[in-house]
Amino acid sequence: MNKEKSLLHLKDVFHILGMVKGFSGIITASTIIRALEKLCGVFLAVALAIFVEGVFTKPTSGFALQAIIITSAIITKFFVSYLDTYVSHDVSFKIVNALQGRMYAHMDTIAPGGLSKINSADSATIILSDISVFEWFVAHCLVEWLGTFITVFICLVLLSRVSYIAAVVVFCLIFHIERQRHI
């Protein structure tokens, strides 16, 4: 992707974020829930790795406790995933509803009576296309980007507590992979 095109997309994202300033609290909550959902997956992977390692090195040590932790992690991941889907879609539909109200108020000001001439099927098409595009952006892109960034940041910080070298290597690999995706 060339630099001008990626900057244009970034400019569009910031423009959209400017339109949803009043929703920063619920977007933040949705982002935190998304990050928690991702961190649950990381925790589950680590717990399973420790469990498998324990099975091969000391098979009888702490099996029941590890099974309880893994089962709890799976159940928590399930509920946080559901909550993530529910909240992110609830947020996006609230934003779309508010923006549509503002849009129709402006349309009525610009062309009084103009909305009454629009066929109800055309109005439904306009509304549904607005909802699907904006809902996709908020629920599936914006919150996903922010949640992923937070998750990667937390994982790198935790990894740096174990080994700074490993954290730097993982960060460089992530950076390199992302650059290759956009070339």
Structure class? mainly alpha
**Proportion of beta-strand residues:** under 5%
| Computed Rg | 23 Å
Q: Note the total helix count.
A: 5
Biggest pleated-sheet summary: none
Helix percentage: over 70%
The helix-strand sequence is HHHHH
Mean pLDDT: 76
Distance between the termini: 5 Å
Number of strands: 0
Low-confidence stretches: none
Please tell me what the overall shape is. Answer: elongated
Describe the overall structure.
The chain is mainly α. It is 87% helix and 0% strand. It is built from five helices and no strands. The chain has helices at residues 3-19, 24-57, 63-110, 120-162, 164-181. Helix 2 runs antiparallel to helix 3 (63-110), helix 2 (24-57) crosses helix 4 (120-162) and helix 3 packs antiparallel against helix 4 (120-162). The termini are close together.
Layout: helices, strands, pairs:
Elements: H1 3-19, H2 24-57, H3 63-110, H4 120-162, H5 164-181
What are the salient characteristics of this protein?
183 residues, mainly alpha
Concise description?
By secondary structure, the chain is mostly helical.
